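Hello K.,

You asked for the raw outputs rather than the summary table, so here they are, unedited. I folded two proteins back to back in the same session to keep the settings identical. This is the first:
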Amino acid sequence: MRVLVVEDEQLLADAVATGLRREAMAVDVVYDGAAALERIGVNDYDVVVLDRDLPLVHGDDVARKLVELGMPTRILMLTASGDVSDRVEGLEIGADDYLPKPFAFSELTARVRALGRRTSMPLPPVLERAGIKLDPNRREVFRDGKEIQLAPKEFAVLEVLLRSEGAVVSAEQLLEKAWDENTDPFTNVVRVTVMTLRRKLGEPAVIVTVPGSGYRI
C-alpha cells in the first residue's frame, strides 16, 4: 500500500511515516498543501493522511482537488478539532474518514488499512494462495501452517503479489507499491527482495518469474 502523509507538524509527520513504514507501507511525506498537490499529480496513492490546517494550500482544498480529479485515493483527514460539526464538514468536503488529534497510532494504522482495502476490488482481510496465508492486520505470514518471519519490505512485496490474485506484477509496479519516491528506480532492490522472499518462503518456490514482465504467485 502506498500512502502520502500531509502534515505541517514535521515531528508528527515523520513519526507517523516511520510507524506506517514499519507496518510494511510505502510512505511519502510533505509538510504543506502545495507540496501535497504536486505529489498527487505525480504518484498514485492508495491513502492520503491529510491534516486539515495546512500552510500554502488548505487541507480542505487538497481534498476537493482529489475529489475533482476522480481519483480512487482515499482520504483520512486529521485535525486538532474534534467537534461534530468539523467532522461533518470534513466528510462533506470529500474525506472518507476523520480522526481528531491526539490519536492512538494503532487506530490510525487500522483506519489507513481499512481505507486502503477500499481503493481496489474487495478482498478478504486474510489473503491466501498457494499454501500461503498473509494477515495484513496482524502482520503474520504462514506457509502450510508454519509461521514465517519477514522484513517489512518482504512483507509488502508478498502482499502486493497476493493481492494481484495470480496476475503478473512488474518490477516497476512493485517498486511503486512497496517503496517510497526516494528509491532509485534503477536499483536492483526489487530483484534482491524477491530473491530473499523466495528463500524465506521455502520450497517448492511459489513466486514465479515471468521473463520480461515481472512476478506472480
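The second followed immediately with the same parameters:
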Amino acid sequence: MPSYRLHYFPESGNSYKLALMLTLCGERFEPVWTDFGGGVTRTPEWRKSVNEMGEIPVLEVDGVKMTQTAPLLLKLAEQHGRFGAETEEEKFELLRWLFWDNHKLTGYMATYRFMRAFTQNNDPQVLKHFRRRLEDFLGILDGHLQHNEFAIGTTPTVADISMMAYLHYPSDEHGFDFEESYPAIHAWLGRMAALPGWRPAYELLPGKRMTNYAK
C-alpha cells in the first residue's frame, strides 16, 4: 500500500479535500503542518523544495510530491475505486461539477472566507462583491441539490468532496447560514457528514490555528 504525507494548514479547504478523501478510503496519512499564515509558502526555499507553485496542499505519495487538488482527487478515486464515476455520462458530469467548483464555488469561497475571517482591515466593498458572487453560485448549487442527492446522482463522488469542503467550516468563518438560506445545501452537507468515517477539517488536520478576526 502507498504511504502518504500531506502538507497542509487546518484552514485550507483544499487540504481538507485530500485529507477527507484519504480518510473515507480508509487510508492514513502523515500530517505535515505548514505555516501558511507566516508566509513560508511564499519563500524561494519552500517553493524550491516543496512546491514550485507556492500552494498548499502538497501530497507525497511514496515520497513523490504531487500538487493540485482536483487531479489528485481524481487519481485517488481511480486508485481506490471509490467516489468516481462509472459511465461516460457520469464521468462528464463529475468533471463538469468539479471544474465548476474549482473555478467558481471554491475559488470565490476560499478567498472570501480568508479575507473575512483571517485578514484584518478588510475592504468592505471587496467583501460585498465576493459575497454577491457567492450568493449566485450557492443558489445554483442549492437548485441542483433540490433534485439530486449528490452532485451527479444518488452516490457521492469527488465532486461532492470538492464542493463541500469550504462550506462545512464554521459559519463564523464564512458568514453563511445554510440551513436558513440554502436548505438543500444544508441537507446535502448532512448527507456528506453521515458517510462512514467522515470527520471535519479541524479534527483531521491538527496544528496551530490562524486568528479568526470575524468572531
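Strands lie at 4-8, 30-33, 58-61, 64-67.

Happy to rerun anything if the numbers look odd on your end.

Regards,
P.
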